[in-house]
Amino acid sequence: MVEKKTIKLDDVAELAGVSKTTVSRVLNNRGYLSDKTIKKVHDAMDKLNYRPNVIARQLFKQKTNLVALVFPTVDNPFFAELEAELEKRFDQLGYRVLMGNSQNNPAKEQDYLKLLLNHQVDGLIVGSHNQGISEYQKTTRPIVSIERFVGKQIPVVSSDNYQGGLLAVQRLLNDGCKHIIHTNYPINLVSPNELRQQAYEDLMNKHHRKPITYSVSFDVSDEEKERVFRKMFREHPEVDGIFADNDTNASLIIRVGKEFNRHVPDDLKVVGYDGANITRTLSPELTTIQQPIPEMATKAVELLLQLIEGKTNVKSVTLPVKMINSTTA
Amino acid sequence: MVEKKTIKLDDVAELAGVSKTTVSRVLNNRGYLSDKTIKKVHDAMDKLNYRPNVIARQLFKQKTNLVALVFPTVDNPFFAELEAELEKRFDQLGYRVLMGNSQNNPAKEQDYLKLLLNHQVDGLIVGSHNQGISEYQKTTRPIVSIERFVGKQIPVVSSDNYQGGLLAVQRLLNDGCKHIIHTNYPINLVSPNELRQQAYEDLMNKHHRKPITYSVSFDVSDEEKERVFRKMFREHPEVDGIFADNDTNASLIIRVGKEFNRHVPDDLKVVGYDGANITRTLSPELTTIQQPIPEMATKAVELLLQLIEGKTNVKSVTLPVKMINSTTA
DNA sequence: TTGAAAGCGCTAACAT
DNA sequence: ATGTTAGCGCTTTCAA
């Protein structure tokens, strides 16, 4: 194979008989250029099959037009849709997107934070479930978080979790459920998602019922989760309504319920949470609270861009949720 | 707020009372250094909170340690799992991963190819469904494709589609199905996936049955797809077995079947394809052919790294599939 | 064991 | 309308 030397501005300049600067100007459409020069330069570029070295440009500009998405894993309906929506919007704005699956591993999350601090990326969207990463508190670089409290100065985009909780529980109450159980992840995760539980408890208390919540970690296997749900059915055979904190769990609960001869919705009603694309395609029967994923993506991108552009005083936002009526409740 | 000047090698060198070279050596653990010097330099780095500029290093090395994943969308169980597995492996090897959702848009795919040619990424994993992008034929830069023929010199990692097709159809035949229909996407997509259809046709012909295939584009809405399936049930009310080309379609077919009062598996059997994580969690009842997604990821990463390291003669591989027995067939 | 100097490929003052 | 030059921050020969 022929050893190919990389073609640079200089080579184009030489062939076109102009200076590097002129070539750079043609490349960036900047400054005054005569048509003749422009043509000469373009011809030379074509002839040499010139390709600008973006890294060099990045070094000069101190900007990479790269952002990283730090979520537990993209292999989950909610995050998959969210990341796809984020990528779509960033792409339109000329940003490339790094996939940062943190696996809920603080070390990996810190790696991505380092990328930001090292100026390898211009910004970060984080939605991981780790906590206590102190660097978040210190940095003033652009970070937007989704459904998670990260640090005082970091804006959060979330959906209206309290309202979502109310909608879900009210639906079960309206369905006539007497014994409603909630599943959530361990509450120490410092997420606005706790508000769902708050709403559940408030509404239960208001109706003089005892709130019962089962904790299920996000990052364990389906089998592990099913084990918790079996325990739940054994400990509370009277349960007739479940408000699950996400659709995957709702789906697992329905399956485990079958083992206990519970038929949904006749003798068990289930309301899920998230309402992502994939879930609705694969489990259309699920009644659920839908988070406005596309709008959340739009907002997060908007806020991050403001931060990247140096704007201060960027505020958190909360977006409304929607009830999706189907047949499990 | 205080205007912070970025700390560079020079600053560290000055504070430590050594040269840039020495600091660089400490940073990279290269060459002979006295312990005293090393300590001095580290102290200075700590004091200044020095962070190396990776872009500058990339410019020098002409290597970004970045790869891009070009697939139609990550918002799909198969691609989500595949991309997550790829990211996990690349991360362990020190590569970062760009998410390239091509939306089956050739222009977007070309953009990512450009990233590669511009040396902004070191390699590409492609699994999009576009075709006729001539640049693929010309480049000698590192590209590995998954389940898709891209160009003569580009290695393909695929699962054994022919075997998968045989397994699926044989299962339906064993179940006693007399009128089996196959769904696939338009055949011009130059994918090894055509082999599934080939297997279907071969087996049908062998059993003296007429093969019937319905084409469903990958990148249309669920509603659009359901429309095709309704047409299928109307045109072929005798159908009693379906070999769907992916699990999402299988799921949609089962739903549409209900509209036609078809009860699965009693009077309609369905075998899907892919067997991704999410699908199995959300639609565990689906009998399907499972692609070895983690192994495909492992192999693709391995091949791409060989290419990045300059190895030639990197060969395509085919990996075995597996039948997942459940209740829809 | 350490340093000086050149250069990775590009951009932007500043000059003409 | 175009060119000269300095420099973005780092690594690496080469020399000492």
From TrEMBL, chains A, B:
Domain spans labelled HTH cro/C1-type: 3-51
Per the database record, which ranges form the HTH lacI-type domain?
Answer: 7-61
Task: Write out the GO MF terms.
Answer: DNA binding
DNA-binding keyword on record = yes
One Pfam short name: LacI
Question: Which species is this UniProt entry from?
Answer: Limosilactobacillus portuensis
Recite the UniProt keywords alphabetically.
Answer: DNA-binding, Repressor, Transcription, Transcription regulation
In the UniProt record, does the keyword Coiled coil occur?
no
> What's the name of the protein?
LacI family DNA-binding transcriptional regulator
